Amino acid sequence: MLTLRVFLLCLTFNWCHGADLSNKFFPKNFQFGLSTSAYQIEGGWNEGGKGESMWDRYFHENTSRSLDGYNGDVTCDSYHRWEEDVQILKDIGVDVYRFSIAWTRILPDGTTKHINQEGVNYYLNLIKALRDNNIEPLPTLYHWDLPQHLSELGGWLNPQIATYFGDYARICYQMFGEHVKRWLTINEPKSTCLIGYGSINNAPGLELIGDGIYQCAYVQLLAHAKAYRIYDEEFRNSQGGVVSIALDHPWSEPYSDSPLDVEAANIENQFGLGWYAHPIYHGNWPQPMIERIGNRSLLEGYTFSRLPVLSNEDVEYIKGTHDYFAINIYTGYYTQHIDDYGVGEPSYWLDKGNNVFSDPSWPKSSSDWLTSYPEAMRKLLNWIKVEYNPAEVMVTENGWPDSTGTLEDQERITYMQGYLSNLLDAIDDGVNVIGYLHWSLLDVLEWNAGHTQRLGLVHVDFESANLTRTWKNSAYWYQNLLTTRCLVDNCQ
Ligand code: GBH
């Protein structure tokens, strides 16, 4: 009777894949953790000597840019409540905490003319508290919050920003490197460029979808490479850590096995992940990007490609700047070939072409872009191995939004079970996955969606005076997983 009820529920809510979870243990040294970012969690936007970032400016100059009026001014107030957060991390039992450093807390206008000691102390205290509780700190140097001053210099369109970023990275290695063994340079460069420089949805809100986005990617790659090389040359010997960049990509699967759809999915994966991973692992843009953008540019009347040409020097500088592969995996799509769009407006979307959509049977989250397709985890991890063959892969984000922030978040648990089971399958397939960090610890600010999209394992009451944190069922579930290290009743 009970089995029947569970079965019917599973049919109704599309949770059936929960039925066949992997019965393998997570490997001994596998690291579990949680992720956040500075702008989304800290608040204290103008406190402790912090300078203005482009996200501060973006929301302050136009309050309607936030869907519900919330912005990063206060959000979870972790600038003041970080000790409580560390306690939660400890109680859940994570091995790793991934957070980001706000550039403007360390260097208020982004330049090294003034180092803000109060900001340095904030992160030193956090990092030491994590270490004291046996939690490995994993800082991201840049999670989208460019200093406003540098944004005014042209932001990620100006190659000189790479030099500023290198200088900022050096200071972070100097200040924190003694306690940090794993770094990330930039989070989801693709999103910063594509959404921030290609649409109004993210700061700085420029709509340069045909050219600015490619220039932005070029500058971010230079900046990442610079930060990597500075670590390599000046700090690796004494600090012995590793450095990478966190990329994101929804796995793109051919809709049918027709050669055209197979090629379309490859183009989609190359434009989505290869855009950054190919230069870093193989030294240049992926060939389909070079060809498609180059051809379309000429037809549009340009005398050169809208995709910046990488000089030999650029190629050598960017190539090899990775110690592990960090990837944020949330979802997947089917990709279908369509005949090329005619030449019109220069645009990333037209450059790659393709019809991209989800299967109607995949459970929908509260965010348009995210349906649950757990196999995306296994398939993308395997694709990464084939394309780049990294020694180690870490999943640095994976998460499920809902609009209510309910404590009874069975959907989130089901999502995690499915994705983690597929992660174990990928390990079986031979991909060396060394960790999984869930997004997010708290109901952090979901950028321009404000708090209408909740992704935390721990609920935050934004109406309450002390921003009360309450564990959701998923937090208890994760806590249990971290002790059993097994997704089913009995693992082998
Ligand atoms: C991550 O991005 C981010 O790293 C993190 O900060 C964020 O909180 C988390 O996901 C949850 O969303 O503007 O409608 O065109 C995940 C990948 C890429 C998903 C950009 C949303 C923008 C959709 N994101 N995408 S839209």
A few lines on this structure:
The chain has 492 residues and is α/β, with parallel strands linked by helices. It has helices at residues 2-13, 38-41, 54-60, 78-92, 103-106, 117-132, 148-152, 160-176, 189-196, 212-239, 259-282, 287-299, 312-318, 348-352, 375-388, 410-429, 473-484, and strands at 31-35, 96-100, 136-142, 182-187, 242-248, 251-254, 325-328, 332-336, 355-357, 393-397, 433-439, 458-460, 469-471. The chain binds ligand GBH.
Please tag this protein with its features.
single chain, 492 residues, alpha/beta, TIM Barrel, eight-stranded parallel barrel, 17 helices, 13 strands, 13% strand, globular, binds ligand GBH
What does this structure look like?
This protein is an alpha/beta fold and 492 residues long. It has one domain (20-484): TIM Barrel (Alpha-Beta Barrel), CATH 3.20.20.80. It contains 17 helices and 13 strands. It has helices spanning 2-13, 38-41, 54-60, 78-92, 103-106, 117-132, 148-152, 160-176, 189-196, 212-239, 259-282, 287-299, 312-318, 348-352, 375-388, 410-429, 473-484, and strands at residues 31-35, 96-100, 136-142, 182-187, 242-248, 251-254, 325-328, 332-336, 355-357, 393-397, 433-439, 458-460, 469-471. The strands form three sheets. The protein has an eight-stranded parallel β-barrel with strand order 1-2-3-4-5-7-10-11, surrounded by five helices. Strands 6-8-9 form a three-stranded mixed β-sheet, sandwiched between helices. Strands 12-13 form a two-stranded antiparallel ribbon. Helix 9 runs antiparallel to helix 10 (212-239). It is globular. Mean pLDDT is 96; it is low at 1-18. The chain binds ligand GBH. Residues 37, 40, 187-188, 191, 195, 201, 248, 328, 330, 369, 397, 399, 439, 446, 455 line the site of ligand GBH.
